[in-house]
Each structure stands twice: as C-alpha cells, then as structure tokens.
What we know:
- By secondary structure, this protein is mainly α.
- The chain has helices spanning 6-24, 34-39, 45-48, 55-80, 86-98, 101-107, 111-116, 120-144, 150-164, 167-171, 175-183, 193-205.
- The protein has two domains: 1-51, Orthogonal Bundle (Arc Repressor Mutant, subunit A), CATH 1.10.10; 55-205, Tetracycline Repressor, domain 2, CATH 1.10.357.
- The protein has twelve helices and no strands.
Amino acid sequence: MIKGTPELIATRREEIINACQRLYQTMSFKEITLKEIGAETSFSRPTIYNYFQTKEEIFLALYEREYDYWNQELEVILSEHETLTRAELTELLARSLEKREQLLKLLAMNNYDMEANSRPELLASFKGAYGKSLENMDRILQQFCPEMDAAQRLSFRLVFFPFMFGIYPYAAVTEKQRLAMEQAGVDFHYLSIYELTLACLRRLLG
C-alpha cells in the first residue's frame, strides 16, 4: 500500500516517468536501469519500488501517457470541427502524430517484453488508453467520413494502427544507418513522420 496523499502519489509517479523520458532521449531501453532512473529523481531509488516494480512498468506508464496525449489531440479534432474533407482530415491526423514522436518511438520497441513484465492492473490501465485511441479514431471516421460503414472503419484501424509501429524506424534514421545503406548500395528515400503518415492516410482515405 502506497502511503501519502493522492497528490503526492501522482506527483512522484510523474517524476519517475519524467526521469525515464529524459533518459530515453539519449539512451536505449536496454541501457536504462532503475538505478539511473532513480538518480534522476529527488528521492531515493528504493522509493521507486513503491510505485513501479520493474523498469518495464515505468516505460509502460510513459507509453500510456503518450497515448493520453494523442487522445487529447484526436479529441480536439472532434470538438473543433463539424465537418472536414478527407484531405483536411488526413492533414490533421498526420500533424497529430508528427507531435507524438515519443509515442512512435515506444511503439517501435519490443512491446511484448514490456507488457509481460508489468503487473496486470498497470497493463489494464495502459490498454485503456490504447483502447480510447481506437475509439476516438472510430468516432473521427464516423463524424468526418459518414459514408464509411462499420466494416470499412474497422478495416482502416486494422491497417493504420499496425502501420504506426513502423513509422519511427523509417523516420528516425541515424548517420550510421544512412552510411550502412549507402555502403550496401540501397537506394532509399527518407521521409519525415509527417510525410510517412500522410502517405499512408492518403492511400486509406483517398
């Protein structure tokens, strides 16, 4: 049982998640340890175990927060527009993901291990945020593409959401990777997150 007021608990959880996010800007998932995350917080490392039992649980919480942020973006699209052309909707959705590079980076990770090493209640909370994004996308399609029936909207989600897992590796290319492609003689056209997402949405929405 975690001791403290709900405000203190929420503040400390957020501090731990923020510490993980800062480290993830310059380090890989494998390189980051609970010790290093603890060193980025204002309290002792053992305190972390009151909130998260594994490194994967912290990353899962960061992952959930990123879905929450994207859901906010999707809900803004719904609330601020009565109608949109498909071209306008495609632009807004592409821009919404352009802002969520952290989410796309997490999507490119090994989600199986992250979820396997997290407690069921934390996994359920994460799945709630993910499920809300599916729901929001369905609401967007119903509102702005009313000619699409339930089967077509499902087909869209079954293509677009798996596609999101591959956006970051294609868009965030290191110089080492570029050099390797050149040395291998691979003619590759590099695109940004926005350009990749826009291309996919144009194919799906016309």
